[in-house]
Amino acid sequence: MIALATLKDPELFWQDHAAWLESNGYKLRARYQPGWEPNIPVSRLIPSSNEDFFSMARMAIVDAVRMEDGKRVLLKRVLRSDHPHEVAITKYFSTTPLSNDTRNHCVQLQDMLYPANRPDTTILVFPFLQQLTALRFDTIAEILDFIRQIFGLQFMHRNHVAHRDIDVCNIMMDGEDFFPEGWNQRFPSLTPDGTRRAKAFTRTQRPPKYYSTTC
Fold first, then answer.
1. What contacts 53, CB < 8 A, 6 or more positions away?
2. What does the pLDDT look like over 102-121, one tens digit per residue?
3. d(Cα 14, Cα 137) in Å, to the nearest integer?
4. Which domain of life is it from (predicted)?
5. Rg (Cα) of the chain, in Å, rounded?
6. Integer CA distances (angstroms), 117 to 88, 114, 120, 151, in order
7. 21 CA to centre of own chain
8. Is 154 buried (19+), middle (13-18) or exposed (0-12) by CB count in 10 A?
C-alpha cells in the first residue's frame, strides 16, 4: 500500500473549505487545514499515528469535530449532478415521523451545509459511526441480532425507497458504547491517535445498533 503523504485532488475540496466549515461550527483535522504540508518523506510504510497518512478511504467523506460540543462527526460531500436524489432521501428518513420510528435503521442526518461557491454541492453531517468490520462476531446470537436489525432495510422499501447498493461499506454501527477510548478515523480498530489497538467490549457485552446509508 502506498502512503498518502500528499493531498489528492478530491481532498483539496476539504482544504479549500476548511475555514468556511469552521465558521459553520465544524473543525477539520490538521491534514485539511490551509497551508498544511506533509512533514515526513513519502514512504511505503504507513505509520498510522502520523497525520500525513490519515486520508479517508472514501475522499468524499471526512471526519470533523463539531465545535459546540466537541463531538466527532462525518461530513459527506454530495454532488447533486451525480446523485440527484440522495439529499432528499436522506432528509426524508431523518425527519419526523420516520426518524422516530424504531424500525428506522437509516443513518440520521444532523445538519446540511451549502457552499456558496459550489452550487452543485451539499455537505451532509452525520454521526461518527464505526465500521461494521472493526469488531468480530463471537457468537451466533450476535450474528442473528445483526441480521434482525439489517432487516430494517425493509423499512425503506415500505416507504417507497429501494437501496440498491447495500454492502459491508454501507452498513455501520454505533461504536461509542463498546469502544470506550474512541477509534481512529482511518484505521477503525486503533485508538484515535493510531498508536495501538483500541480497547473494545464484545457485541454481547454491549450490543450495538446497526445503521445503513440511504444511498
1. 3, 4, 5, 46, 47, 186
2. 999 999 999 999 999 999 99
3. 35
4. Eukaryota
5. 18
6. 21, 9, 9, 40
7. 17
8. exposed
